[in-house]
Amino acid sequence: MKEIGIEYTILVKEGINEEFPDHLKKEEIAIYLAELKSRAYLDEINANNIVITADTIVWVNDGLLGKPADRADAIRILNLLSGNKHTVYTGVCISSSQKQLSFYAETDVYFRTLDADEIEHYIDTCQPFDKSGSYGIQEWIGYVAIEKIEGSYFNVMGLPIQKLYEELRKF
After folding, report:
1. Which pairing describes strands 63-65 and 85-95: parallel, antiparallel, or unpaired?
2. pLDDT at 17
3. Are 41 and 54 in contact (CB under 8 A)?
4. What's the gap between Cα 78 and its chain centre?
5. How many beta carbons lie within 10 A of that of residue 142, not counting itself?
6. Across the beta sheet with 63-65, what order do the strands follow?
7. Catalytic residue among 55, 62, 108, 115
8. Angle, helices 71-81/116-125, rounded to nearest 10 degrees
9. SS3 20
10. Which residues are registered as beta bridge partners of 65?
């Protein structure tokens, strides 16, 4: 945000229940969760500021991959991504005291086939446990495993900054 000339403050709210209705799929989940997070900040919004919330999910083989529960789950998830294409969806919600705008970005990510040692090395040396899909594109695995992406790199990091900039200009 700073690099595109936007002043901001990061606010953190603990304990937001990130459950969503079962009928939602793909971008619907990401948008729903971004809007859910936005509601937690209603008291922070005044005439002089806006709140931007986002949520990123990973979708593969017609199913959602969340954050891993533990090491074994991270291994399972990375094995699903290995040699496969998945799609990253980020829902973003911009809220002011007068209006709200929600949108999403999607990026297809292609992993080469990883062996067990590579997956374990990544899990043991990086931070996969707080990330949907058990990986961060900006970490080791992004350098060695991702063959190509179609869409925004920054979306895979968790905030589609180019699209956010466009939407803020309209907002």
Report:
1. unpaired
2. 87
3. no
4. 16
5. 19
6. 63-65, 51-60, 85-95, 100-111, 146-150
7. 55
8. 130
9. coil
10. 58
Looking at the DSSP bridge assignments, the partners of residue 150 are 108
> Structurally, how many domains does the chain consist of?
1
- Cα-based distances in Å from 89 to 63, 101, 120, 133: 12, 17, 26, 11
Q: How much is the pTM?
A: 0.93
**DSSP structure string for 49-89:** --EEEEEEEEEETTEEE---SSHHHHHHHHHHHTTSEEEEE
Name the region of 144 (left: φ>0; alpha: ψ -120 to 50; beta: rest): alpha
* pLDDT, mean over the chain: 94
Give the model's pLDDT for residue 113: 98
The CATH number of the domain holding residue 125 is 3.90.950.10
Q: Give the range of the structural domain holding residue 60, as residue numbers without chain letter.
A: 2-170
Antiparallel, parallel or unpaired: β 63-65 and 51-60: antiparallel
> Is 55 noted as a catalytic residue in this protein?
yes
Rounded to whole angstroms, the Cα distance separating 150 from 88 reads: 10
Query: What tokens does 128 get?
Result: 């996969």
What is the band of 18 on the pLDDT scale with cuts at 50, 70, 90?
A: confident
